């Protein structure tokens, strides 16, 4: 007898990864298994693009997964566990968290969650219980805060021209964004614009994938973008390329600022940026003469201690020339504020009786190890995040996670550097196994992705785990009965958006502001509707006007002498932060962690291409393989992050060398602002 096997089916889904694209996908499924993932050509923005790592998602989906709850049997960090039932796991979690709440109060528990999924329901799930139980809240600043502070200072809201408007531009500048790696769908629009004759210019300290595709690459030293931008403004003002009527009508530009900028010549900026005055002058002229320059500002420049100041200075350029008012002109940093969503049904802020303390996620190591943390953190509930890889100052993070008096629960899809330190691991579903709504930070569609595959093993989604824990802890609020489907329905209803049934067939809703709004033709989201050249930082040391602000590791004299090289860890092609770092095939494709170092620096140290080197600073040391290349500049070395701890002989990963110093004006992590020395092993 032959059994009939139904043919594979094709479904629409949405990529849940923390990436500005939020790509619409077509997923092919055969008998409960993922066969293939490709881009959906019908989506108006992503138009069928897809990155390599998501096209290979089956490697993660059907690779080694966490299948059941796991209880630690070895030492913390050793990675030895035994399977347990959900009943046993939930019982243990309820007992331990219950004890901590009774003894030291809810604030002794910290839910730590961030970028694993961008789904509105699953990503924000832990907050409802945090609010109800009075757990410590998390300042979720690790990615966006520094950049947002810089953009907010001038423009005031995270919207801008749709990237598809690039087709009307004659000059595209990708500044501090490695879009060919971090936002592939953007490159589709860049390609179309170039077909129409636009030039592509990339501003980045090293020749990354995007710079290699550009007509021109300008490579300032990291952390010096404000110097470059203000010198460009000096040139444009001196050469009559500023738009005076625009400045008067739409900005706070004034005479003291004009006098200040007058002193910021290309010669002044040359020393700071490492660029020649001619390069700076030519760039200013190219920008000032362009008919409709489209500036896409990325997060890269914000991962510096002076990042907010730099990003604000760069955002001043289209205001100086009035490029905002041209079709195809203006600047885009992020699109998130276009989505007017009411997410209260998920977050449940009204369940919070007394506001609990807010802890800085970028300083987890210190929070866990400093005896001043009061009350001490006794319970850690990690979900959709991997702080033992993604957080700065990993030695401290590891020391904290090793504490015997800390009870750590990790809700995960796969074994990670953080999960290895858990007392209890809970199996999580992937985005193909649960439903969710997705907004985007790079385009303007709200999208729905349905559950398409059965949960792997006993995996459960975030909202189900949080609700179950809340109920076990005795919270009887109705909100803890609402599942994903109900929350999606409520979110749409509370946001006055059409019910899912009415648009499920297409899969997306445009939330794009009008052209006039995207170009701030009726004013910016700042006092008097003006773009603010005066950033108005609420911080005593930050410069009052756009300027270079020398506060980076390079500017600390003692450090600069001991550790002579700048060190960055910008995103890599085949992984997304630490997601996919554990996939064996991905590790093989990438090879061991490499240190890009300029031939000049290599020669001075006797370093040979392909040989192991020791990279060290005041926080620690790591062994990497030298990649001697002119793709970086003298004085700058880097590793395209991230890797798992077990890929380094030191059994700790790259962020062991990243400092966790607080960043002005409102926190964040300066991942690309570190100093190191490099030696042959
Ligand atoms: N493949 C892949 N895609 C990703 C990610 C990933 O890890 N891998 N991560 C995702 C996430 S969470 C985010 S937030 C986005 C971030 O994506 P982007 O906005 O592209 O930001 P970064 O990747 O941090 O940095 C981009 C570039 O900034 C450069 N840079 C560093 N310092 C400076 C500086 O001082 N000035 C200038 N001009 N450039 C500088 C780096 O060299 C890098 O090439 O990407 C997302 N997409
Ligand atoms: N050196 C260096 N470090 C960086 C950066 C850098 O550029 N350089 N970039 C920083 C940036 S921009 C960011 S945003 C952070 C991100 O850092 P994290 O928020 O820690 O994100 P990931 O490292 O991707 O880890 C996410 C984890 O969530 C899991 N996961 C995925 N979906 C789900 C789900 O639905 N439920 C549950 N429970 N788990 C899920 C994945 O398996 C993965 O292990 O990293 C930062 N770290
Ligand atoms: Mo991020």
Low-confidence stretches: none
The end-to-end span amounts to 65 Å
Average pLDDT metric: 97
Binned strand content: 15-25%
Taking strands numbered 1, 2, ... along the chain, how are they ordered across the largest sheet?
5-4-16-15-14-6
- Percent range for helical residues? 25-40%
Number of strands: 25
* Rg calc: 25 Å
Shape: globular
Bound molecules: ligand MGD, molybdenum atom
What is the oligomer described by this structure?
A: single chain
How many helical stretches? 26
Helix/strand class = alpha/beta
Q: Characterize the main sheet.
A: 6 strands, mixed
Put the structure in a nutshell.
This protein has 681 residues and is an alpha/beta fold. It is 30% helix and 17% strand.
Which labels suit this protein?
binds ligand MGD, 26 helices, 25 strands, binds molybdenum atom, 6-stranded mixed beta sheet, alpha/beta, 30% helix, 681 residues
């Amino acid at each position: 007898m032959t059994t009939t096997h139904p043919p594979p089916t094709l479904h629409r889904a949405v990529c849940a990864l923390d990436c500005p694209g939020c790509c619409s996908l077509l997923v092919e499924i055969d008998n409960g298994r993922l066969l293939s993932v490709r881009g959906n050509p019908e989506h108006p923005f992503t138009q069928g693009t897809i990155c390599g790592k998501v096209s290979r998602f089956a490697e993660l989906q059907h690779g080694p997964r966490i299948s059941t709850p796991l209880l630690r049997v070895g030492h913390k960090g050793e990675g030895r566990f035994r399977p347990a039932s959900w009943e046993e796991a939930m019982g243990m979690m309820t007992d331990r968290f219950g004890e901590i709440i009774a003894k030291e109060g809810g604030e002794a528990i910290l839910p730590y969650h961030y970028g694993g999924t961008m789904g509105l329901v699953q990503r924000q799930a832990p907050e409802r219980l945090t609010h109800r139980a009075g757990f410590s809240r998390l300042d979720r600043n690790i990615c966006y805060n520094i950049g947002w502070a810089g953009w907010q200072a001038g423009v005031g809201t995270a919207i801008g021209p749709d990237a598809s408007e690039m087709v009307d531009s004659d000059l595209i500048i990708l500044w501090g964004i490695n879009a060919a790696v971090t936002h592939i769908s953007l490159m589709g629009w860049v390609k179309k614009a170039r077909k129409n004759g636009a030039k592509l210019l990339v501003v980045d300290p090293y020749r990354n994938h995007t710079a290699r595709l550009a007509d021109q690459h300008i490579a300032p030293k990291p952390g010096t973008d404000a110097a470059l931008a203000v010198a460009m403004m000096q040139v444009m003002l001196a050469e009559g390329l500023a738009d005076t009527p625009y400045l008067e009508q739409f900005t706070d530009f004034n005479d003291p600022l004009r006098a200040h900028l007058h002193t910021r010549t290309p010669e002044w900026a040359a020393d700071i940026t490492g660029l020649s005055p001619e390069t700076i002058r030519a760039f200013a002229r190219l920008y000032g003469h362009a008919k409709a320059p489209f500036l896409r500002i990325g997060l890269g420049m914000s991962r510096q201690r002076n990042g907010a100041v730099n990003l604000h200075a760069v955002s001043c350029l289209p205001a100086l020339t009035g490029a905002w008012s041209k079709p195809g002109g203006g600047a885009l940093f992020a699109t998130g504020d276009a989505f007017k969503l009411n997410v209260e049904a998920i977050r449940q802020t009204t369940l919070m009786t007394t506001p609990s303390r807010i802890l800085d996620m970028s300083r987890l190591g210190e929070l866990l190890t400093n005896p001043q943390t009061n009350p001490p953190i006794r319970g850690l509930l990690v979900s959709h995040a991997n702080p033992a890889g993604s957080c700065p100052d990993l030695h401290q993070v590891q020391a904290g996670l090793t504490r015997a008096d800390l009870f750590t629960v990790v809700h995960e899809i796969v074994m990670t550097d953080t999960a290895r330190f858990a007392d209890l691991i809970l199996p999580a579903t992937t985005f193909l196994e649960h439903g969710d709504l997705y907004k985007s930070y790079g385009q303007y569609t709200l999208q729905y992705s349905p559950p398409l595959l059965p949960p792997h093993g006993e995996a459960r989604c975030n909202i189900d785990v949080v609700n179950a824990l809340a109920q076990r802890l005795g919270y009887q609020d109705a909100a803890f009965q609402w599942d994903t489907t109900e929350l999606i329905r409520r979110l749409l209803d509370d946001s006055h958006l059409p019910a899912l049934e009415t648009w499920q067939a297409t899969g997306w809703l445009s939330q794009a502001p009008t052209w006039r709004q995207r170009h701030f033709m009726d004013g910016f989201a700042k006092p008097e509707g003006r773009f603010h050249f005066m950033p108005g930082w609420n911080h005593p040391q930050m410069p009052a006007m756009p300027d270079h602000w020398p506060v980076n590791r390079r500017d600390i004299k003692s450090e600069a002498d001991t550790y002579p090289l700048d060190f960055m860890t910008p995103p890599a092609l085949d992984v997304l932060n630490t997601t996919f770092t554990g996939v064996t095939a991905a590790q093989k494709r990438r090879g061991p962690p490499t240190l890009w170092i300029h031939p000049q620096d290599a020669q001075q140290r006797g370093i040979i291409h392909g040989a192991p080197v020791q990279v060290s600073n005041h926080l620690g040391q790591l062994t990497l393989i030298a990649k001697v290349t002119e793709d970086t500049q003298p004085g700058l070395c880097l590793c395209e992050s991230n890797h798992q701890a077990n890929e380094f002989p030191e059994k700790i990963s790259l962020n062991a060398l990243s400092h966790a110093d607080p960043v002005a004006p409102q926190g964040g992590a300066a991942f690309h602002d570190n100093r190191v020395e490099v030696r042959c092993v």
